[in-house]
Amino acid sequence: MEPRELYQVLYAKAGFEVVNDHVGEKQLRVLGRVDNKRMPVWLVVIQRLLAKAEQSSWNVDISKQYFLRDGKLLFAWRVIFQGDEIGGHLQEIADIATEAPVMRQEIMEVPIQRSAHRTQMRHGRGAQSIAGDAGTPPIVSVKLGG
Fold first, then answer.
1. Is residue 133 classed as helix, strand or coil in its secondary structure?
2. How far apart (Å, rounded) are the C-alpha atoms in residues 100 and 83?
3. 78: which strand partners?
4. Rg of the Cα trace of the chain?
5. Alpha carbon distance 48, 3 (integer Å)
6. Both ends of the chain: CA-CA distance in Å?
7. What DSSP letter does each residue of 37-69 carry, written as one string?
8. Beta-carbon neighbour count of residue 139 at 10 Å?
9. Collapsing DSSP states into helix, strand and coil, what is residue 20?
10. How far apart are CA 93 and CA 89, in angstroms?
11. 3-state secondary structure of 81
């Protein structure tokens, strides 16, 4: 498998778009970005890669690289795969990314139960005196003027 084919797998699975790369015999260094909408899937892929790397002859280092563009702070994901003849492990790495489960997100709307006490205070509004019902005086007294 060629590095560009791995990049296509990472983009198809998690939206990881390669911005820059460096290919060596023992290292593949990739700099890329992921859209916020795809971040949950990307994080699952990261977790799977890190877990598999602990049991493999290759290693992966994943971090964020921060930089300024037009005075705005931005970051890119830096992914470094290392191992003897790393090119021979690219298919395994692609398979790990492909097999990572996609987490389905659901938003469920639940009505908030309100108690009658909180919504029907003295004047029908939700506010009450910070002194409380007992008429507790303030902790500090401040005299204004002369």
1. coil
2. 22
3. 31, 63
4. 28
5. 19
6. 85
7. GGHHHHHHHHHHHHHHHTTSSSEEEEEEEEEEE
8. 5
9. strand
10. 6
11. strand
Instruction: Report the alpha-carbon distance of residue 108 to residue 131 in Å, rounded.
Output: 38
Domain residues of the chain, as ranges? 3-99
Beta bridge mates, 72: 69
What digits encode the pLDDT tens for the residues 36-72? 999 999 999 999 999 999 999 999 999 999 999 999 9
Q: Dump pLDDT digits (tens) for 63-106.
A: 999 999 999 999 999 999 999 999 999 999 999 999 998 766 55
**Which of these CATH numbers, 3.30.1490, 2.60.40, 2.40.10, 3.30.1360, describes 3-99?**
3.30.1360
3-class DSSP state for residue 32?
strand
